[in-house]
Design goal:
11 helices, about 220 residues, about 80% helix
Length: about 220
């Protein structure tokens, strides 16, 4: 208990840091995932090829390796002086977007083909059909797996702490270096992660009820 009370500001900052990188990388992953899913079902072959390559490469690359690329390669080529927050968000967001893409693509597959054919018969373009007809119907199917994906992202954010970003794992490592009992440090850190993951799960359950997702 003493370690929590003595270093409450550090735990608070680590908790907020985890929330920040989780929220930003989740938003990036959702935007990219939906976009790449659209590429994967596109009638344009180059877009389908790009979407397939994106998912294949990112899903089969260890997340730690993506962090190494983000922190040691990207700043040398694109974003010199970028903060650990930005680089961590890019690594987490890009990696998770491949899983979001497959969840969304699976949801698109549940929409009857006749819906798209009817939209095309009305003169709607592919992008209009996808945005206005298919995705709204696929959302109900996509919400449950997205919950698991975002919870996994929350736990994966701990890797950012190993690269100098001030989140919960980074705080735990610093306090352990100061000689505090590792069991108490891990206990409070685990409880903080549980608060975040339970909150994410609750938000998605609320979304499922609002959308009337069948169990």
């Amino acid at each position: 208990m003493n370690v929590l009370l003595d270093y409450l500001p550090e735990f608070r900052d680590g908790f907020l840091g985890t929330l920040a990188i989780t929220a930003s990388s989740a938003l990036l992953a959702l935007v990219l995932g939906v976009l790449i899913a659209g590429f994967r079902v596109s009638p344009v072959p180059p877009l389908r090829a790009f979407g397939t390559a994106w998912v294949t490469v990112l899903r089969n690359t260890p997340l730690t390796l993506l962090f190494l690329v983000a922190f040691f390669v990207v700043p040398q080529i694109l974003f010199q002086g970028a903060s650990p927050y930005i680089l961590g968000t890019l690594a987490l967001g890009f990696y998770t977007s491949s899983f979001v893409c497959e969840a969304v693509r699976a949801g698109i597959g549940t929409v009857p083909l006749g819906q798209a054919e009817a939209a095309r018969s009305l003169g709607m373009t592919f992008s209009q059909t996808l945005r206005l007809i298919v995705l709204p119907q696929a959302t109900r199917t996509v919400v449950p797996p997205l919950s698991s994906i975002i919870i996994a992202l929350t736990k994966n954010s701990a890797i950012a702490g190993a690269f100098g970003y001030g989140e919960l794992f980074n705080v735990s490592k610093l306090l352990n270096d100061k000689g505090y009992a590792i069991a108490w440090i891990f206990l409070w850190t685990a409880l903080a992660y549980l608060v975040i993951t339970f909150s994410v799960s609750g938000l998605f359950r609320l979304a499922e009820r609002r959308l009337g997702v069948a169990r």
